[in-house]
Q: What sequence folds into this?
């Protein structure tokens, strides 16, 4: 068995991937129910849906894409760089969209 | 996976250990995915920006559309699971099961594309359109024709974002087909393109978009002719990274585009 295969068999069991898949389906079902019931007002709803999406994406990246088991330098470099770019995008665009809305532009 | 299996050099210590502890193909794919995530990030920001400043924002998605999108989500999530099983099979060097799992992943991916295509056709048939799209008969008087005129940002951002994702899923299915079946996949791809082009009516946008398959056929042929090889476990894992990424992007598109625009009757 090669080194790579040894490493895989050391921390992977197929069962955990089925659990992750089940968790992703359950979280999707929760999102759909929230979409139909409209318990929250739109901005709160957006926040809740985004939090659920971030949890789902963390499960996909961590387990399915295997980033959880990579070296920490690779893990942190990817997460920090991509998250940093998204934060910059957020600060550039959303205050302006909000300003347009507050000015009453229809 | 560590780089141990990938580094098969004659002399131990001849090369330095890789910085990221992974073979170069995998690091390359991760870097591509990081840059591609910014492409989708920009599109999602554009969608959300328009969503915030356009008041009122259209809510055209009935129960049927949400049900369809939920099934599409389940297809993508299930395809990620079959992809993981494919990677496991490839690491066991079980080529038959690798092919089977990759085929299952392709079936789920194709189901996603077909369902999304039907959803697009339905919305276009109801009048949701952008300049340049062919207009089917009766679409101009449809329920969503007014939306296209009053809030053109909605169809522009909706079609722009979902088309980009659909293109990625299509490329993903073809990528997996090439990895699983190599040159034997090319005739199938050619037949799908030709049959699709001949059967889809000319007033449907997919009559033209299906030419993406022809471009993919040419590119795949060039790759397979210039560099024929049997793809190993590393190739399957790298293809899997790409596939999981398209799944990941949909996890944001589904709630932001569909669930935030649900029409509750």
A:
């Amino acid at each position: 068995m090669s080194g790579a295969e040894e490493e895989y068999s050391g921390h992977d069991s197929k069962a955990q991937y089925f659990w992750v898949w089940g968790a992703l389906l359950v979280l999707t079902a929760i999102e759909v129910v929230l979409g139909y019931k409209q318990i929250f007002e739109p901005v709160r709803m957006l926040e809740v849906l985004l939090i659920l999406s971030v949890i789902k994406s963390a499960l996909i990246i961590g387990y399915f894409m295997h980033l959880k088991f990579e070296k920490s330098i690779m893990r942190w470099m990817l997460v920090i760089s991509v998250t940093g770019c998204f934060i910059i995008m957020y600060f550039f665009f959303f205050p302006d969209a909000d300003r347009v809305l507050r000015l009453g532009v229809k | 996976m560590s780089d141990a299996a990938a580094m098969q050099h004659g002399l131990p210590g001849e090369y330095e250990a890789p910085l990221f502890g992974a073979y170069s193909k995998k690091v390359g794919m991760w870097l591509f995915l990081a840059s591609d995530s910014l492409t989708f990030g920009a599109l999602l920001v554009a969608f959300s920006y328009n969503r915030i400043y356009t008041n009122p924002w259209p809510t055209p998605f009935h129960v049927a559309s949400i049900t369809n999108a939920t099934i599409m989500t389940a297809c993508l999530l299930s395809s990620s699971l079959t992809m993981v099983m494919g990677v496991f099979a490839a690491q066991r060097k079980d080529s038959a099961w690798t092919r089977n799992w990759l085929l299952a992943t392709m079936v789920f991916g194709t189901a996603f594309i077909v369902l999304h295509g039907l959803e697009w056709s339905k919305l276009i048939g109801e009048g949701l359109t952008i300049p340049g799209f062919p207009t089917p008969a009766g679409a101009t008087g449809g329920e969503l024709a007014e939306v296209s005129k009053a809030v053109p940002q909605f169809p522009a951002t909706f079609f722009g974002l979902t088309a980009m994702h659909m293109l990625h899923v299509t490329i993903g299915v073809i990528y997996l087909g090439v990895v699983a079946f190599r040159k034997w996949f090319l005739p199938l791809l050619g037949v799908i393109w030709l049959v699709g082009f001949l059967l889809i009516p000319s007033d449907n946008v997919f009559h033209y978009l299906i030419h993406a398959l022809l471009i993919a056929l040419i590119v795949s042929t060039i790759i397979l002719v210039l560099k024929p090889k049997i793809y190993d476990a590393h190739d399957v894992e790298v293809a899997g990274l790409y596939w999981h990424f398209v799944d990941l992007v949909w996890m944001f598109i589904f709630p932001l585009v569909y669930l935030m625009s649900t029409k509750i009757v």
Observations:
- The first helix of chain B runs from residue 24 to 53.
- Confidence is low (pLDDT under 50) at residues 1-10 of chain B.
- Chain B is about 70% helix and 0% strand.
- The two ends of chain B are 50 Å apart (CA to CA).
